[in-house]
Amino acid sequence: GNNSMISARVLEHKPSAVRPFDDVKAQVTAQLQRRAASEMAAREGAEKVKAAAGGDVAGLNFGQVQKLTRQASLPGVNAALAKLVFAADASKGVVYTGAATDAGGYSVVRVVKALAAETASDEKLKGIAQRLVGQSGADISNAYLTALKDSIKVEIKKGVTVAKKDDLGAAAGDTKGAGAKP
After folding, report:
1. I need a surface site. Which of 23, 38, 76, 83 has the fewest CB within 10 A?
2. Rounded to an integer, what is the distance from CA 87 to the centroid of its chain?
3. Distance CA 90, CA 114 (A)
4. pTM, full prediction
C-alpha cells in the first residue's frame, strides 16, 4: 500500500538449472495424464454434442434452465462456451453446443431459447453517452501527454519532491514565517 516499504536481503542464490528427471517424473506424468484426459473429454464431448443435435440425448443430464447474459457469467461457463451459446440459433428450436472447460473437462449445453435484449431507457442511454464522452476525452488527453513527453524528451526523476506552496512563500521571504498557516 501507500507509505509502505519492504526491505529484503538475498541470503542465498541458486541459478536456474535443469532438474534431474527423477525429481520431476511424478509431475510430468501427472501433467501428461491431465492432458490426455482433457483431449479424451473434448473428443467425447464433441461426439455427444453431435449425437444430441441428431436427437440422441441418451446419457446426458441437464440441470435447470439458467439465464446467461453477456454482463454476468454463470459458474462453469467460460468465455469460449459463452461465445458458442450466444452464437447458437435457437429460433428454430433447441440447439446443443459444447466447449472445453477451464478444469480440463467438457460441457454440453442445451440452448432452449434466445431472449431479445432489453431496450435501454433514455436516461440510461444518456448516462452511457456521458461516460463514453468522458472516456474519449481522457484517452485524447493521455495520448496528447504521451506524444508531448516523447517529443520534448521529458525525464521524470524518482525521489524528487515538489515544494509546497507554504514552503515557497517562506523561501521567498514571507513575513508570516516558515510553516505559518494563513
Report:
1. 23
2. 21
3. 6
4. 0.52
